[in-house]
Amino acid sequence: PDSVGQFTSDHGWNFPADFERLAPVVAETRALGVRVSLFMDPLPEQMRAAREVGADRVELYTEAYASAWGTPQQADVLARYRAAAEAALAVGLELNAGHDLNRDNLADFLRSVPGVREVSIGHALIADALELGYVETISDYQRCIQRAFAPR
Hints:
It is built from seven helices and four strands, in the order αβαβααβαβαα. The protein is α/β, with parallel strands linked by helices. It has a single domain (about 20-150), classed as TIM Barrel, CATH 3.20.20. The protein has a four-stranded parallel sheet with strand order 1-2-3-4. Helix 2 links the parallel strand 1 (about 35-40) and strand 2 (about 55-60). The radius of gyration is 16 Å and the shape is globular. The termini are far apart.
């Protein structure tokens, strides 16, 4: 959904505005046997349209969560993500998440948002690897995931 020259993503696709633009691209991609995941804001009402355009998955844009992490707003923001995830799962979409997730906030997100299959963590992972090395960084992210699903 980014404009030409945009430095990084700051929003997801928007329906119905983007439906006609995306439908032929999604159809062509799926015809080639490629799984389609659309980058989406955590808006439950958008999930059905993402499925109707032909997406297999959505990736929830998590910058709002990362900005709220550790603040009094965190619980309310996570509730929005949980509602969006539940709406996506209800219409048969699989779920990814990404943008500004890191070793500090990942476990809380995964613990609170159902059905997350994959997370995109590029910048934070590379920054951590520069400090800790790749092996330790990957091990630490795996520990975050284990903490998220550990019995409480």
